[in-house]
Amino acid sequence: QVQPVESGGGSVQAGGSLRLSCRLSGDTRRRAYMGWFRQVPAREREAVAVVTKNGNLEYGHFVEGRFTISKDSVRNTVDLQMNALRPEDTAMYYCGAAEWDYRLNFRGYKYWGQGTQVTVTP
User: Fold this and answer.
1) Residue 49, Cβ neighbours under 10 Å: how many?
2) Residue 94 CB contacts under 8 Å (≥ 6 apart), including other chains
3) pLDDT at 62 (0 to 100)
4) Would you state the pLDDT for residue 60?
5) CA 57, 12, 90, 86 torsion: positive or negative?
6) Cα separation of 68 and 76, whole Å?
7) What Rg do the C-alpha atoms of the chain give, in angstroms?
8) pLDDT, tens digit, for every residue of 75-107?
């Protein structure tokens, strides 16, 4: 099995930028579908951005062109560049990996990192 390991995150003022990185450790011989998700207390986890089977990039409706996901299949990493951050983007961000192409459906992702906190202040 694989284990996502996140880095990045932190605190930034509204309008600022942050970059999150995720690296897969463990048995990476099989293809893994990767993406970024976020969650705030008492709310369901939601998809931020994923890379699909065909290499397409899909984003949550709230992204509105502000974030960019990129994947390096050789290094088994997926990065999330977040620009124009808003206070409502404050959440714990998780890197997820799946054995199938579940796209934005977080319930299909089996492997999760420990999460990295993103805080956006007004």
Assistant:
1) 25
2) 4, 6, 36, 37, 38, 39, 45, 112, 113, 115, 116
3) 97
4) 97
5) negative
6) 17
7) 13
8) 889 999 999 999 999 999 999 999 999 999 999
8, two tokens? 């990045």
- Tokens found for residue 82: 């977040």
| Dist. CA 51–CA 36, nearest whole Å | 9
Strands 33-39, 91-98: pairing is antiparallel
Q: What are phi and psi of 88, to 5 degrees?
A: -70, -5
> Three-state DSSP class for 88?
helix
Residue listed under structure tokens 């502000």? 66
Which tens digit of pLDDT belongs to each residue from 8-39? 999 999 999 999 999 998 887 888 899 999 99
Query: What are the start-end ranges of the E strands in the chain?
Result: 2-8, 10-13, 18-26, 33-39, 46-51, 57-59, 67-72, 77-82, 91-98, 111-112, 116-121
Do the beta carbons of residue 40 and residue 46 sit within 8 Å? Answer: no
Contact 9, 82 (CB under 8 A): no
What per-residue confidence (pLDDT) applies to 31? 81
